[in-house]
C-alpha cells in the first residue's frame, strides 16, 4: 500500500521525526511536521555528532553486573543516578538489568548494527542532497584508556566489534600522539574506530534536513500537541492552541517526551531517561597549539570531547533522573576537571550548560512500527544515545512498514509492543 496522496502527521522534529517526515514526503505523502520548537533544537542538537558502528554496544551489556559495586557511591563521571527515580521506575530498572543477559545482548547488538549501517548510508546521501557534506569528517573517533586495567576490561567490546566486522585499530601512546597531538600523553591505550564519521554541528544538520523536507512540499507547524486519537476516519492531533488537525495516519517521534505524552492518549510506556550535559570551550588560543581533529572518548574521565563549529564540545556521561528534573552540573564539573588533564580546553564560550534527555527502553532498542491495538498510529522513539545517528535508517524502516513492504533490515527487534501497551478505552 503506497503512502502517495495519504495525509500524515509527524509529531516531533528531532532527527528521527525530521528524517521520517522527509522520507514519507519524498514517497508522495502529504506530511505535516509538528513541534513546539524549531527542528533539531532539543536532544538532536547537543550530542557529540558521532555516526559510528561502535554505537551498537549498549550500556546494559554482560559486563554491567560487574560494574555495579563501583556505582553504589553514585560519584562516577560516566554514570550517576537519582535513587528516587530508580525506585519509582523499578520495572524499567529490573528489565534493563535483565536485558544485559548474553542472549538479549546479542540480539540487541545485531539489531542496532543493522540500523546504524542503514542509517549511515542514508546520512551520506542526505548530506550530499542538502549540500552539507562540508560538516562531515571521515576520521572516525577514538576510545582512550588511562590505565592498563581499564583497557583489559574492554575484551567484550573488542570481541563484539570484531564479530560485527567494525574496523578498529589498537593504538599505543606514540600512535595516539601522532593521530591527536593536542592530547596530553596520559593515555596508555586507544581504540581508533575506523569506517566511522562525525559532524561538527548536529543541530545544523537537522535544520538542513528540515529545509529539504520543506522543498519536497512538506509543511512544518511550530506548535505543541496536547494529545492524539484515532477513529474510523483516521487520526487527530489536538494542538496547544485548541485547533485539531486530522490526517490518515500519525507518527509519534517525541523522543524522551513520548512517555508522558502518550500517557495522556491511553498508552503506557516502560521507558527511562539518560540525561546528559554539554559545554563548549574555546580550545587552543595560540597558533602553536594543536587542535583536536575528531571526537575522543576518555573512558576514565567519563566524557566525550568533539570539535564543533561552536568550539570544543565537552559532553558528559549518563544521568538517570526524571525527564524534567532540575539541572545538576556535578557531572559536567567532574568531566571538565578530567578533560583539563587531557587537553588545553580554554575558557567556556557559553553562559550555562546545555541539558539533553535521551529516551531508553529496557533493551536499549527503539520502538519502530505500528502502535499497539492501532491501525493508523505509528511510533518511532526510544533511540537512547543514537537517535541522531539512526534517524534516517529509522525513517526507511518505518516508511516501508507503513507501505506494507519488507524493510531492508529485520524490523521485529524494534516492535513497539515490547514495552508499550494500550489501555482499554
Automatic annotation (TrEMBL):
Keyword Ribonucleoprotein (UniProt): no
SUPFAM superfamilies associated with the record: FAD/NAD(P)-binding domain
Protein name per its UniProtKB record: D-amino-acid dehydrogenase
Residues annotated as domain FAD dependent oxidoreductase: 8-401
GO cellular component: cytoplasm
Source domain of life: Bacteria
Entry keyword NADP: no
Keywords: Oxidoreductase
GO molecular function: oxidoreductase activity
InterPro entries in the record: FAD-dep_OxRdtase, FAD/NAD-bd_sf
Gene3D superfamilies given in the database record: D-Amino Acid Oxidase, subunit A, domain 2, FAD/NAD(P)-binding domain
Amino acid at each position: 500500500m503506497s503512502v502517495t496522496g495519504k495525509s500524515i502527521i509527524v509529531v516531533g522534529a528531532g532527527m528521527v521525526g525530521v528524517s521520517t517526515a522527509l522520507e514519507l514526503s519524498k514517497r508522495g505523502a502529504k506530511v505535516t511536521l509538528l513541534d513546539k520548537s524549531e527542528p533539531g533544537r532539543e536532544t538532536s542538537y547537543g550530542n557529540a555528532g558521532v555516526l559510528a558502528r561502535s554505537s551498537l554496544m549498549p550500556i546494559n551489556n554482560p559486563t554491567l553486573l560487574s560494574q555495579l559495586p563501583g556505582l553504589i557511591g553514585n560519584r562516577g563521571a560516566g554514570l550517576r543516578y537519582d535513587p528516587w527515580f530508580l525506585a519509582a521506575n523499578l520495572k524499567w530498572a529490573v528489565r534493563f538489568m535483565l536485558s544485559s543477559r548474553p542472549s538479549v545482548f546479542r540480539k540487541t547488538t545485531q539489531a542496532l548494527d543493522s540500523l546504524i549501517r542503514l542509517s549511515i548510508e542514508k546520512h551520506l546521501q542526505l548530506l550530499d542532497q542538502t549540500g552539507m557534506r562540508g560538516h562531515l569528517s571521515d576520521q572516525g573517533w577514538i576510545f582512550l584508556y588511562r590505565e592498563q586495567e581499564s583497557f583489559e576490561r574492554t575484551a567484550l567490546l573488542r570481541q563484539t566489534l570484531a564479530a560485527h566486522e567494525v574496523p578498529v585499530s589498537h593504538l599505543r601512546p606514540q600512535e595516539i600522539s601522532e593521530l591527536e597531538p593536542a592530547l596530553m600523553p596520559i593515555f596508555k591505550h586507544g581504540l581508533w574506530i575506523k569506517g566511522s564519521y562525525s559532524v561538527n554541528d548536529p543541530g545544523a544538520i537537522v535544520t538542513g534536513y528540515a529545509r529539504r523536507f520543506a522543498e519536497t512540499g512538506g509543511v512544518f507547524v511550530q506548535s505543541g500537541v496536547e494529545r492524539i486519537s484515532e477513529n474510523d476516519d483516521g487520526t487527530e492531533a489536538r494542538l496547544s492552541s485548541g485547533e485539531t488537525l486530522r490526517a490518515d495516519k500519525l507518527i509519534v517521534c517525541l523522543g524522551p517526551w513520548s512517555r508522558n505524552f502518550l500517557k495522556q492518549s491511553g498508552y503506557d510506556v516502560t521507558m527511562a531517561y539518560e540525561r546528559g550535559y554539554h559545554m563548549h570551550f574555546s580550545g587552543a588560543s595560540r597558533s602553536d597549539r594543536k587542535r583536536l581533529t575528531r571526537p575522543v572518548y576518555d573512558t576514565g574521565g567519563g566524557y566525550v570531547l568533539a570539535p564543533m563549529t561552536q568550539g570544543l564540545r565537552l559532553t558528559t556521561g549518563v544521568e538517570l533522573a526524571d525527564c524534567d528534573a532540575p539541572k545538576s552540573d556535578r557531572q559536567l564539573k567532574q568531566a571538565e576537571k578530567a578533560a583539563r588533564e587531557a587537553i588545553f580546553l580554554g575558557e567556556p564560550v557559553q553562559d550555562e550548560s546545555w541539558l539533553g534527555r535521551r529516551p531508553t527502553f529496557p533493551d536499549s532498542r527503539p520502538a519502530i512500527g505500528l502502535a499497539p491495538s492501532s491501525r493508523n498510529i505509528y511510533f518511532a522513539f526510544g533511540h537512547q544515545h543514537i537517535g541522531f545517528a539512526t534517524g534516517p535508517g529509522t525513517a526507511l524502516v518505518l516508511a516501508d512498514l507503513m507501505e506494507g513492504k519488507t524493510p531492508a533490515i529485520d524490523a521485529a527487534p524494534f516492535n513497539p509492543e515490547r514495552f508499550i501497551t494500550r489501555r482499554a478505552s
